[in-house]
């Protein structure tokens, strides 16, 4: 019986070794790509063209990429965009590279760079206005040269191009503040906003661009109290595309931050402190040094120690109840 058991064990190890020798090793692909510049802002006249040099760098495994240019549009008020399937508008694109063409895959070795020379042409009869595009490079897992490498799902990197076509060089700037307010703890009579003195106070500022051209919004949010309290926070400059809205975001001492209240993005959160009385928040938004347009909006709120008041009321109520019971027992 012992010999039979040893024989079976020996056969098992021989078969296992044989299986391992015949099995092909599969490795997950490491994708790490960069594109520069990531954003272009071009003002151009009809009938003109320009050449842009893009640098594509591969920090990972060998990869096959296909370059394309597609149109995009804003998808929400947070700056996110939606890529379209094709090019829309009058602008024409092609690559001046001798071996790399739009729509054709090319191979990029690991730890190497490739320069793409993108030619942008605007026809003579092109209408004035804004047109938004993305130069995208999509991986082609099925064309990997290393057949022992299992490529991950298809990946895409993109560089956005904001093109303003204008004959005279004038930009159509028509922004407006569509919303500026706090998110209060209580709201009475529709206008009276009340917060707790120890609360962090969320602030929301949205600007809409009704003009034909994108604008770059910047500015500040200021706080002033009835007892002389003052504070100011700068708005982080943001592009607002034509016919879209954008949530503007303020910075703090630590730099850029994504502010959220109950998991929803907001423009800013006033830091926790002891607020008491009436306060006024003022938003001031400008659109570049050459633009005289400056938008302002105000909102007010009243800060009261609501939590402290509830604690005092609860304490007094509890004391009265206990005192009444003790008197009844005595």
| Helix percentage | 10-25%
Q: What is the third-level CATH name, the topology of the largest domain? A: Immunoglobulin-like
Broad shape: elongated
Distance between the termini: 90 Å
Q: Give start-end ranges of low-pLDDT stretches.
A: 16-28, 147-151
Structural class: mainly beta
Number of strands: 24
Give the biggest sheet.
Answer: 6 strands, mixed
Task: Summarize the structure in short.
With 330 residues, the chain is mostly beta strands. Helices cover 14% and strands 47% of the residues.
What does this structure look like?
With 330 residues, this protein is mainly beta. It folds into two domains: 28-165, Immunoglobulin-like, CATH 2.60.40; 175-310, Immunoglobulins (Immunoglobulin-like, Sandwich). 14% of the residues lie in helices and 47% in strands. It contains two helices and 24 strands. The chain has helices at 2-22, 306-329; strands spanning 27-28, 33-36, 39-44, 49-58, 63-74, 81-83, 92-95, 106-108, 112-121, 129-139, 149-150, 156-165, 175-182, 186-188, 192-196, 201-209, 215-225, 230-240, 244-247, 260-261, 264-265, 268-270, 277-286, 294-304. The strands form six sheets. Strands 3, 5, 6, 8, 10 and 12 form a six-stranded mixed beta sheet that branches. A hairpin with a 2-residue loop joins strand 20 (260-261) and strand 21. The longest helix has 24 residues, at 306-329. It is elongated and about 100 Å long. Mean pLDDT is 84; it is low at 16-28 and 147-151.
């Amino acid at each position: 019986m012992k010999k039979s058991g040893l024989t079976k064990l020996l056969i098992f190890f021989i078969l296992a070794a044989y299986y391992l020798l015949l099995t092909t090793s599969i490795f997950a692909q490491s994708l790490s790509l960069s594109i520069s510049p990531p954003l272009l802002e071009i003002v151009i006249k009809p009938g003109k063209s320009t050449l842009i040099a893009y640098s594509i760098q591969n920090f990972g495994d060998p990869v096959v990429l296909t370059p394309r240019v597609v149109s995009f549009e804003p998808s929400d008020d947070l700056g996110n965009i939606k890529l379209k399937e094709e090019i829309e508008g009058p602008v024409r694109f092609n690559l001046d590279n001798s071996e790399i063409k739009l729509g054709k895959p090319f191979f990029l070795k690991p730890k190497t760079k490739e320069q793409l020379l993108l030619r942008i042409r605007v026809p003579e009869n092109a209408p004035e206005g804004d047109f938004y595009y993305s130069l995208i490079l999509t991986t082609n897992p099925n064309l990997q040269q290393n057949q022992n490498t299992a490529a991950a799902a298809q990946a895409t990197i993109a560089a956005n191009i904001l093109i303003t076509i204008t004959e005279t060089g004038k930009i159509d700037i028509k922004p407006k503040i569509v919303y500026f307010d706090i998110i209060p703890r209580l709201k009475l009579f529709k206008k009276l906003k009340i917060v707790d003195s120890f609360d962090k106070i969320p602030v929301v500022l949205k600007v809409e661009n009704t003009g034909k051209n994108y604008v770059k919004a910047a500015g500040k949010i200021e706080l002033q109290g009835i007892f002389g309290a003052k504070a100011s926070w700068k708005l982080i400059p943001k592009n607002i595309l034509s016919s879209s809205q954008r949530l503007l975001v303020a910075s703090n001492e630590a730099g850029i931050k994504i502010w959220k209240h109950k998991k929803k993005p907001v423009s800013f959160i006033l830091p926790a402190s002891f607020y008491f009385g009436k306060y006024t928040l003022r938003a001031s938004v400008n659109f570049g040094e050459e633009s005289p347009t400056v938008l302002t909006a105000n909102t007010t709120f009243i800060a009261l120690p609501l939590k402290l008041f509830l604690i005092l009321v609860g304490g007094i109520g509890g004391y009265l109840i206990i005192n009444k019971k003790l008197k009844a027992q005595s």
